[in-house]
Design a protein that fits this description.
Elongation Factor Tu (Ef-tu), domain 3, 2 domains, six-stranded parallel beta sheet, 5 helices, 12 strands
């Protein structure tokens, strides 16, 4: 892969999404052409004390025309990039941003159901996908978004997806929490895997997109294939 080209970009907004997750809005220099496809990622060239300074992050927003994009980043205290982003970067800070990369995009036309399976900040590329389809009014069949987390406070963008579900009968938002009980949470509890196995027990045509920790991703791929789905209909992206 060719060495990425980086552009000076400015952080224009930071929002706390959860106790350990932030939403960054970043603007690339408007004199530089910048566009991306829903589902792509960028790399940040960070001045961190390591021989590896470039870190990749999925874009969490649908494409826009104003040279801005969103990132959804969880703090890893022992990580390389996120301590710098959380402790050193504020509104007005400059970051070096690569051109968009990656192929976790939606083929069109959208001629089957789509099942998204994600955990934590793995929601980012799927938020990009879903709101891009909404913005462009792309015709689609049922979209199931299965989102695994530990507790209610960890459900990122919950209000957005709940609002979309109310106005779009073809969109189903299914948060699943592993550390809540029926006494504290009225939704689905446990892990994401039984949910898609239940929804697609009839083996109807669908495309599966998976993003999250390696262990979840590996198990989901194995279980979806075991259900009888061809691996060419299972797309994925892992994060460290």
């Amino acid at each position: 892969m060719a060495k990425p080209i980086y552009h000076d970009s400015k952080v224009i907004e930071i929002i706390d999404l959860s106790p350990n997750t932030k939403h960054f809005v970043i603007e690339v220099d408007r004199n530089i052409p910048f566009s991306f496809k829903a589902g792509q990622f960028i790399m940040l060239d960070l001045p961190i004390a390591s021989h590896i300074t470039n870190r990749s992050y999925s874009i969490a927003s649908a494409p826009r025309t104003d040279n801005t994009f969103d990132l959804c980043i969880v703090l890893k205290p022992d990580g390389l990039g996120t301590p710098y982003l959380f402790n050193e970067v504020g509104v007005g800070s400059t970051l070096k941003v690569s051109d968009p990369l990656g192929k976790l995009t939606i083929p069109e036309p959208v001629d089957t159901e789509i099942c998204y399976v994600c955990t934590g900040t793995g929601i980012a590329p799927f938020r990009s996908h879903i709101f891009d389809m909404v913005n462009r009014q792309v015709a689609h069949q049922t979209i199931n978004l299965i989102f695994g987390n530990r507790k209610t406070e960890d459900i990122l963008y919950c209000e957005e997806f709940e609002a979309l579900e109310k106005v779009n009968p073809n969109f189903k938002f299914i948060p699943v929490l592993s550390r809540e009980t029926p006494e504290t949470w009225k939704g689905r509890t446990g892990y994401v895997h039984p949910i898609y196995e239940e929804l697609y027990a009839d083996k109807r045509a669908a495309r599966f997109y998976i993003c999250g920790w390696h262990n979840m991703l590996r198990e989901a791929r194995q279980r979806i294939e075991a259900m009888g789905y061809n691996r060419k209909f299972i797309k994925f992206e892992a994060y460290d």
